[in-house]
Amino acid sequence: MDMKKRITLELRNRSPAEIVELVVDNSRSADGEVEGLTDQFTELEFLSMVNVGLSSLAKLPSLPKLRKLELSDNNLSGSLDTLSGKCPNLTYLNLSGNKIKELSSLEALQNLKSLQSLDLFNCEITSLEDYRESVFELLPQLTYLDGFDQEDNEAPDSEADDEDEDGEDGAGPTGDYDEEDDEEEDEDGSEGGEDEDDDEEDYAQEEEEAGSQGQKRKRDVDDEGEEDDDDEDD
Fold first, then answer.
1. Cys-Cys link to 111, which of 6, 84, 86, 223 (CB 3.0-4.6 A)?
2. Is residue 68 part of a domain?
Protein backbone atom coordinates (compact mmCIF):
# COMPACT_ATOMS: atom_id res chain seq x y z
CA MET A 1 0.00 0.00 0.00
CA ASP A 2 1.36 3.41 -0.88
CA MET A 3 1.99 5.93 1.88
CA LYS A 4 -0.64 8.43 0.75
CA LYS A 5 -3.43 5.82 0.81
CA ARG A 6 -2.21 4.51 4.16
CA ILE A 7 -2.38 7.98 5.70
CA THR A 8 -5.92 8.42 4.38
CA LEU A 9 -6.93 5.14 6.04
CA GLU A 10 -5.23 6.10 9.31
CA LEU A 11 -7.26 9.32 9.45
CA ARG A 12 -10.48 7.28 9.86
CA ASN A 13 -12.65 10.20 8.77
CA ARG A 14 -10.88 12.58 11.15
CA SER A 15 -9.30 15.84 10.10
CA PRO A 16 -5.47 16.00 10.02
CA ALA A 17 -5.54 18.60 12.81
CA GLU A 18 -7.02 15.99 15.16
CA ILE A 19 -4.16 13.52 14.75
CA VAL A 20 -1.57 13.33 17.53
CA GLU A 21 0.08 10.01 16.58
CA LEU A 22 0.52 8.60 13.09
CA VAL A 23 2.06 5.25 12.11
CA VAL A 24 2.57 4.36 8.45
CA ASP A 25 5.23 1.65 8.85
CA ASN A 26 5.85 -0.67 5.88
CA SER A 27 3.81 1.42 3.47
CA ARG A 28 5.53 2.46 0.24
CA SER A 29 6.84 5.75 -1.08
CA ALA A 30 6.87 5.63 -4.87
CA ASP A 31 9.74 8.08 -5.38
CA GLY A 32 11.49 7.90 -2.01
CA GLU A 33 9.79 11.07 -0.79
CA VAL A 34 7.28 11.72 1.98
CA GLU A 35 3.77 11.52 0.52
CA GLY A 36 0.35 12.32 1.95
CA LEU A 37 1.56 14.46 4.86
CA THR A 38 0.63 18.14 4.83
CA ASP A 39 0.99 21.22 7.02
CA GLN A 40 -2.51 20.51 8.31
CA PHE A 41 -1.11 17.94 10.77
CA THR A 42 -0.52 20.74 13.24
CA GLU A 43 -1.03 18.65 16.42
CA LEU A 44 1.13 15.66 15.40
CA GLU A 45 3.54 14.67 18.19
CA PHE A 46 4.60 11.17 17.13
CA LEU A 47 5.31 10.02 13.56
CA SER A 48 6.56 6.59 12.56
CA MET A 49 7.69 5.90 8.99
CA VAL A 50 9.66 2.68 9.41
CA ASN A 51 10.67 0.78 6.26
CA VAL A 52 8.80 2.94 3.76
CA GLY A 53 11.63 3.37 1.24
CA LEU A 54 12.49 6.98 2.06
CA SER A 55 15.64 8.39 0.50
CA SER A 56 14.85 12.04 1.14
CA LEU A 57 13.04 14.23 3.67
CA ALA A 58 12.75 17.21 1.36
CA LYS A 59 8.94 16.96 1.16
CA LEU A 60 8.39 16.61 4.90
CA PRO A 61 5.81 19.26 5.88
CA SER A 62 6.09 21.61 8.81
CA LEU A 63 5.24 19.69 12.01
CA PRO A 64 5.83 22.19 14.84
CA LYS A 65 4.64 19.90 17.67
CA LEU A 66 6.43 16.74 16.53
CA ARG A 67 8.55 15.32 19.34
CA LYS A 68 9.27 11.73 18.30
CA LEU A 69 10.21 10.64 14.78
CA GLU A 70 10.83 7.02 13.76
CA LEU A 71 12.71 6.70 10.44
CA SER A 72 14.49 3.37 10.86
CA ASP A 73 15.14 0.95 7.99
CA ASN A 74 14.99 3.49 5.18
CA ASN A 75 17.56 4.71 2.62
CA LEU A 76 18.44 8.08 4.09
CA SER A 77 22.02 9.18 3.70
CA GLY A 78 21.66 12.90 4.37
CA SER A 79 19.20 15.74 3.83
CA LEU A 80 18.70 15.94 7.60
CA ASP A 81 18.80 19.74 7.50
CA THR A 82 15.07 19.61 6.69
CA LEU A 83 14.36 18.38 10.22
CA SER A 84 15.57 21.49 12.03
CA GLY A 85 13.36 23.73 9.90
CA LYS A 86 10.25 21.53 9.81
CA CYS A 87 10.42 19.74 13.20
CA PRO A 88 12.22 22.15 15.55
CA ASN A 89 10.93 20.53 18.76
CA LEU A 90 12.14 16.96 18.18
CA THR A 91 13.35 15.22 21.34
CA TYR A 92 13.74 11.69 19.90
CA LEU A 93 15.00 10.65 16.45
CA ASN A 94 15.52 7.09 15.25
CA LEU A 95 17.68 6.76 12.13
CA SER A 96 18.82 3.18 12.67
CA GLY A 97 19.21 1.00 9.60
CA ASN A 98 19.79 3.92 7.19
CA LYS A 99 22.77 4.76 4.97
CA ILE A 100 24.39 7.39 7.13
CA LYS A 101 28.16 7.00 6.80
CA GLU A 102 29.80 10.30 7.68
CA LEU A 103 29.79 12.40 10.81
CA SER A 104 29.19 15.44 8.64
CA SER A 105 25.73 14.06 7.79
CA LEU A 106 24.71 14.73 11.38
CA GLU A 107 25.85 18.35 11.52
CA ALA A 108 22.37 19.53 10.53
CA LEU A 109 21.03 18.07 13.79
CA GLN A 110 22.95 20.68 15.79
CA ASN A 111 20.00 23.03 15.27
CA LEU A 112 17.61 20.62 17.01
CA LYS A 113 18.20 22.14 20.44
CA SER A 114 15.64 19.89 22.19
CA LEU A 115 17.01 16.62 20.78
CA GLN A 116 17.79 14.29 23.66
CA SER A 117 17.93 10.83 22.10
CA LEU A 118 19.39 9.71 18.75
CA ASP A 119 19.54 6.14 17.43
CA LEU A 120 21.94 5.17 14.65
CA PHE A 121 21.97 1.37 15.04
CA ASN A 122 23.08 -0.51 11.91
CA CYS A 123 24.29 2.63 10.16
CA GLU A 124 27.82 2.59 8.75
CA ILE A 125 28.74 5.61 10.83
CA THR A 126 28.79 3.42 13.94
CA SER A 127 31.95 1.70 12.66
CA LEU A 128 33.94 4.95 12.75
CA GLU A 129 36.73 5.23 15.29
CA ASP A 130 35.64 7.11 18.43
CA TYR A 131 32.12 7.12 17.02
CA ARG A 132 30.29 7.74 20.28
CA GLU A 133 32.67 10.39 21.57
CA SER A 134 32.53 12.21 18.24
CA VAL A 135 28.74 12.26 18.08
CA PHE A 136 28.37 13.50 21.66
CA GLU A 137 30.92 16.21 20.93
CA LEU A 138 29.14 17.21 17.73
CA LEU A 139 25.70 17.18 19.36
CA PRO A 140 26.20 18.33 22.99
CA GLN A 141 22.41 18.56 23.55
CA LEU A 142 22.16 14.76 23.31
CA THR A 143 21.61 12.72 26.47
CA TYR A 144 21.36 9.29 24.84
CA LEU A 145 23.00 7.81 21.75
CA ASP A 146 21.83 4.36 20.69
CA GLY A 147 20.08 3.96 24.03
CA PHE A 148 23.04 4.86 26.31
CA ASP A 149 24.42 8.06 27.78
CA GLN A 150 28.08 9.09 27.76
CA GLU A 151 28.78 6.97 30.87
CA ASP A 152 27.18 3.94 29.22
CA ASN A 153 24.12 4.11 31.43
CA GLU A 154 21.09 2.70 29.65
CA ALA A 155 18.21 5.02 28.87
CA PRO A 156 15.26 4.38 31.20
CA ASP A 157 12.30 2.59 29.70
CA SER A 158 9.38 4.99 29.52
CA GLU A 159 6.80 2.25 30.21
CA ALA A 160 8.74 1.06 33.26
CA ASP A 161 8.86 4.63 34.53
CA ASP A 162 5.10 4.93 34.12
CA GLU A 163 4.60 1.71 36.09
CA ASP A 164 6.92 2.90 38.86
CA GLU A 165 5.11 6.20 39.04
CA ASP A 166 1.79 4.42 39.14
CA GLY A 167 3.11 2.20 41.91
CA GLU A 168 4.32 5.16 43.95
CA ASP A 169 1.13 7.06 43.37
CA GLY A 170 -0.83 3.97 44.26
CA ALA A 171 1.12 3.43 47.46
CA GLY A 172 0.29 6.89 48.77
CA PRO A 173 -3.48 6.64 48.53
CA THR A 174 -3.35 3.08 49.84
CA GLY A 175 -1.75 4.27 53.07
CA ASP A 176 -4.23 7.12 53.41
CA TYR A 177 -7.04 4.72 52.63
CA ASP A 178 -5.95 2.38 55.43
CA GLU A 179 -5.97 5.22 57.94
CA GLU A 180 -9.41 6.24 56.80
CA ASP A 181 -10.53 2.65 57.12
CA ASP A 182 -9.26 2.56 60.70
CA GLU A 183 -11.12 5.76 61.49
CA GLU A 184 -14.26 4.45 59.84
CA GLU A 185 -13.94 1.20 61.77
CA ASP A 186 -13.60 3.13 65.02
CA GLU A 187 -16.64 5.19 64.13
CA ASP A 188 -18.52 2.09 63.12
CA GLY A 189 -17.49 0.45 66.38
CA SER A 190 -18.75 3.35 68.46
CA GLU A 191 -21.92 3.48 66.46
CA GLY A 192 -22.26 -0.27 66.89
CA GLY A 193 -21.93 0.19 70.64
CA GLU A 194 -24.67 2.80 70.62
CA ASP A 195 -26.85 0.46 68.61
CA GLU A 196 -26.29 -2.28 71.17
CA ASP A 197 -27.19 0.08 74.02
CA ASP A 198 -30.33 1.05 72.17
CA ASP A 199 -31.18 -2.61 71.67
CA GLU A 200 -30.71 -3.29 75.40
CA GLU A 201 -32.93 -0.35 76.31
CA ASP A 202 -35.58 -1.52 73.88
CA TYR A 203 -35.35 -5.04 75.30
CA ALA A 204 -35.66 -3.78 78.86
CA GLN A 205 -38.62 -1.66 77.87
CA GLU A 206 -40.25 -4.65 76.22
CA GLU A 207 -39.63 -6.71 79.38
CA GLU A 208 -41.23 -4.03 81.50
CA GLU A 209 -44.20 -3.82 79.18
CA ALA A 210 -44.48 -7.59 79.11
CA GLY A 211 -44.32 -7.66 82.92
CA SER A 212 -46.96 -4.97 83.29
CA GLN A 213 -49.16 -6.76 80.78
CA GLY A 214 -48.70 -9.96 82.74
CA GLN A 215 -49.68 -8.21 85.94
CA LYS A 216 -52.67 -6.68 84.19
CA ARG A 217 -53.75 -10.05 82.89
CA LYS A 218 -53.36 -11.47 86.41
CA ARG A 219 -55.49 -8.69 87.84
CA ASP A 220 -58.09 -9.31 85.19
CA VAL A 221 -58.17 -12.98 86.06
CA ASP A 222 -58.44 -12.21 89.77
CA ASP A 223 -61.26 -9.79 89.10
CA GLU A 224 -63.06 -12.42 87.08
CA GLY A 225 -62.57 -14.88 89.92
CA GLU A 226 -64.04 -12.45 92.42
CA GLU A 227 -67.03 -11.90 90.14
CA ASP A 228 -67.53 -15.66 89.91
CA ASP A 229 -67.45 -15.90 93.69
CA ASP A 230 -70.07 -13.19 93.95
CA ASP A 231 -72.28 -15.02 91.49
CA GLU A 232 -71.96 -18.20 93.53
CA ASP A 233 -72.92 -16.31 96.69
CA ASP A 234 -76.02 -15.03 94.95
1. 84
2. yes
pLDDT tens per residue, range 134-144: 999 999 999 99
Can you list the alpha helix ranges (DSSP code H) found in the chain?
Answer: 3-11, 81-86, 131-138, 158-233
Domain that includes residue 49, residue range: 3-155
Backbone angles phi and psi of 2, in degrees to 5: -75, 155
- Do residues 132 and 162 share a domain? no
pLDDT tens digits along 35-63 = 999 999 999 999 999 999 999 999 999 99
Q: Of 155, 188, 204, which residue sits at a domain end?
A: 155
Model confidence, pTM: 0.68
Residues 108 and 165 in one domain: no
CA end-to-end distance (rounded Å), the chain: 123
What is the DSSP code string of 12-67?
TT--GGG-SEEE-TT-B-TTSS--S--TT-TT--EEE-TTS-----TTPPP-TT--
Question: Has residue 234 been placed in a domain?
Answer: no
